[in-house]
Amino acid sequence: MTSARPRPAVVLVSGGLDSATILAIARAEGFEPYAISFDYGQRHRFELEAANRVCQSLGVKRHIVVPLDLRAFGGSALTADIDVPKDRSDEQLATGIPITYVPARNTIFLSVALGWAEVLGASDLFIGVNAVDYSGYPDCRPEFIAAFRQLARLATKTGVEGTPWHVHAPLITLSKADIIRRGLSLGVDYGLTHSCYDPDPQGRSCGHCDSCQLRLRGFAEAGLTDPALYVTSAAS
Amino acid sequence: MTSARPRPAVVLVSGGLDSATILAIARAEGFEPYAISFDYGQRHRFELEAANRVCQSLGVKRHIVVPLDLRAFGGSALTADIDVPKDRSDEQLATGIPITYVPARNTIFLSVALGWAEVLGASDLFIGVNAVDYSGYPDCRPEFIAAFRQLARLATKTGVEGTPWHVHAPLITLSKADIIRRGLSLGVDYGLTHSCYDPDPQGRSCGHCDSCQLRLRGFAEAGLTDPALYVTSAAS
């Protein structure tokens, strides 16, 4: 690969705050981003609409939405008919694995991204996982990322032929406030993003689920107001 | 898990010879099999029809077919409009990674199986990979399986909570002839299976692609005749 073409990278874009930030980071680091989103039977469509807005706003070489219906096996409040928990305390947010955990989600998403990357001749993947405000998800930790990189090396033609894989998780040790500051410095419009697990029919965020709480706390810590629309006064 | 219920295991069933054999092995080892197949934009439907026949014949607790359209990124003769190679020599079969390689396929399939297993409370996965007649696929090697097991441990709630994951690849060191002998001893009807990459419109196998060649060679080495239907006299 001696061409002057920028290096391609596959970026996992959910439409949330974190993934918008990593897309901006991938661009700032000189990569040509190929964005991938999943239609995995989310409870609502606002996430995918936000993913489209974010990709258009920040600019990507291509954006694909892969249909992958995880409702076939259920088991999570994000895909099955289970209530999303609300107004959990800081202690609850910081401990345990909540019901919104989708089994093996990041493993599945990174695996599909890996396949696409290999077809594109890319050896860089970007994922917006975060181990600080990670709500207890096991597949958001640095050791998970390291294990996936090792797997990628062994699983692929590219890896076997000696190309090292890079799994970029630039947010992994940042607080939500730091992520927001970083994104704003790179021109991210967080008003385009969607984080809420349980929005109203108009797509306004609930302000009470884990994702809203972590997001609102991040903006507050950064001394900023979240530009997203909320149903209640919880946002203020 | 102190109930008398047999241990559940998720078995990857493609409809081919190898996956039928591992399904029989999982049953013989006392597991309650949950079969998973993928509709990944294969060039033909005969594989999935064979998967259904195999599951019905051997008995499973449940069989799901997960739609996962890998044609979105192309890049393989098995999913894109690229000719399937035919009549390759023994030397060609034994070396290199052929165009029928689907990037990251086994990683993707195992990842989805992992998610379903976690929902089911299973910690055993069965995959029919084979490192002897593996046609050069990197994701059919023992080191790949070991790396996936390590990833599963770190990626899942179950793993974090201390349950060890078992990724069974009981065919990995067997020759095709040994696999066939093993399956026959467990009552597998290989006439129900489909291996060909490029069947005719009636579903008859071509006899010349890598998969047919390896299969025919296996039956010949075992001193048996393949019960599958072939287009040409290559089978005899």
Key phrases:
homodimer; 236 residues; alpha/beta; Rossmann fold; 5-stranded parallel β-sheet
Describe the structure.
2 copies of one chain form a homodimer. The mean pLDDT of chain A is 87. In chain A, β1 (8-12), α1 and β2 form a beta-alpha-beta unit. Chain A has a single domain (8-235), classed as 3-Layer(aba) Sandwich (Rossmann fold), CATH 3.40.50. The first copy, chain A, has helices at residues 17-28, 46-58, 90-94, 105-120, 142-155, 157-160, 176-185, 210-221; strands at residues 8-12, 32-39, 62-67, 124-126, 166-168. The first copy, chain A, is 36% helix and 11% strand. The first copy, chain A, has a 5-stranded parallel beta sheet with strand order 3-2-1-4-5, with helices on both faces. In chain A, α1 (17-28) runs parallel beside α2 and α7 crosses α8 (210-221). Chain A is an alpha/beta fold. Chain A binds chain B through residues 64, 66-70, 72-75, 97, 101-108, 110-112, 114-116, 118-120, 138-139, 141, 143-144, 147-148, 150-152, 154-157, 159-160, and chain B through 64, 66-70, 72-75, 97, 101-108, 110-112, 114-116, 118-120, 138-139, 141, 143-144, 147-148, 150-152, 154-157, 159-160.
CATH architecture of chain A: 3-Layer(aba) Sandwich
Oligomer: homodimer
CATH class of chain A: Alpha Beta
Query: How would the global form of chain A be characterised?
Result: globular
Q: Which range best describes the helical content of chain A: under 10%, 10-25%, 25-40%, 40-55%, 55-70% or over 70%?
A: 25-40%
**Biggest interface between protein chains, with counts per chain?**
A-B, 44 and 44 residues
Domain unit count of chain A: 1
Largest sheet of chain A: 5 strands, parallel
The beta-strand count of chain A equals: 5
Strand order of the largest sheet of chain A: 3-2-1-4-5
* % residues in beta strands of chain A: 5-15%
**Count of DSSP H/I helices of chain A:** 8
The CATH homologous superfamily of chain A is named HUPs
